[in-house]
Design goal:
The protein has about 120 residues and is α+β, with helices and mostly antiparallel strands. The chain has one domain. The protein is about 15% helix and about 25% strand. It has two helices and six strands. The strands form two sheets. A four-stranded antiparallel sheet has the order 3-4-5-6, covered by helices on one side. The longest helix has 13 residues. It is globular, with a radius of gyration of 14 Å. About 20% of the residues are buried.
């Protein structure tokens, strides 16, 4: 679930990976099932040669789009697969991976994410 324009959102993670997410959204997040960042399955990955990758991740606790998320990260596949905690929400906490962009979890979304990833560079 996304956050619309002019809404605020924040997430915080402490050293023990305790997760909290708060949002000022008109409808309750629980209606869609909030993804739990420590319960996920990486379904597929596309990685470019410049340190960017696209991952299709399934969160069994999320309800919309059957829990699928398509996420663009500035990281390596080794770091992604080593992650024990993968929050699909944007966050400026540097202790864990945060996506650079999210895409509609459809075939068209995957293709758009891969095309963008191909153009990304670490510079």
């Amino acid at each position: 679930m996304g956050i619309g324009p002019f809404k605020s959102s924040s997430c915080t993670c402490d050293k023990s990976l305790q997760y909290s997410y708060k949002s000022e959204v008109a409808e309750p997040i629980s209606k869609f099932g909030n993804p739990k960042p420590d319960r996920f399955h990486i379904e597929r990955v596309y990685e470019n040669q410049n340190g960017w990758l696209v991952a299709q991740v399934t969160y069994p606790d999320a309800k919309n789009y059957e829990g699928r998320k398509i996420l663009l990260y500035k990281t390596t596949s080794a770091r992604l697969y080593a992650a024990k905690f993968l929050d699909p929400h944007f966050c400026d906490d540097k202790t864990h991976l945060s996506p650079f962009a999210r895409f509609e979890p459809t075939n068209a979304g995957w293709l758009a994410a891969v095309e963008l990833c191909k153009t990304m560079d670490m510079k």
